[in-house]
Amino acid sequence: MNGKRMLVAALAAGSVAMVSVATLAAAAGKPEASRVVARGKYLVEQVAMCTDCHSPRDGKGEFVRERWLQGAPLGFKNTAPMPAWAEVAPPLAGLPGWTEAQVVTLLTTGKDQKGEPPEPPMPPYRMSKEDATAVAAYLASLGKK
Ligand code: HEC
Fold first, then answer.
1. What is the number of the ligand 1 atom nearest to the C-alpha of 43?
2. pLDDT tier at 20 (50, 70, 90 boundaries)?
3. Which of 24, 43, 56, 138 has its Cβ near the most Cβ atoms within 10 Å?
């Protein structure tokens, strides 16, 4: 399917509210949107290292590439007592259960929709809106064929 047809199909399916302009434009091959997704990939994989917690590893500690950013049990524990500590990092690929706007709020304010910080060890990031938007666009683009 070419980019234009994908765009039309997505619009026809009425899924436009769920798919960001950046993602649609990336599918249509618009350079600006691909640049945003590429920047998001760089931030996720090489700066914020979301992958370290949100991607599962095999018995040798290597990432399971087919399950990239699909959520994972944490491979480490807290050594000091903490009131809250999450043991699992949820899936991020395709942003299941999240809109891009919600992820941008989380990554720019360090708080979720209810105004609560995520449980440690999820860092309460304070990214710029531009960086958070790029991260959300990259995550949303994963798992879409
Ligand atoms: C040090 C490990 C770690 C890193 C690095 C990390 N996360 Fe998480 N993340 C977690 C854990 C653990 C949770 C579950 C927290 C909870 O249940 O409140 C979580 C939860 C989340 C959630 C759901 C939050 C909620 O309130 O339900 C989102 C979205 C998320 N992470 C996105 C990201 C993104 C995007 C990055 C990189 C920019 C990232 N995480 C980096 C460990 C991590």
1. 38
2. low
3. 138
Domain ranges of the chain: 3-141
85: left (phi over 0), alpha (psi -120 to 50) or beta: beta
Three-state DSSP at 137 gives helix
Instruction: Please tell me the least confidently modeled range out of 14-18, 68-72, 88-92, 137-141.
Output: 14-18
Give all strands (DSSP E) within 77-130, no chain letters. 88-89
- Ligand 1 within 6 A of 45 CB? no
How deeply is 97 buried, as exposed, middle or buried, from its count of CB atoms within 10 A (0-12, 13-18, 19+)?
exposed
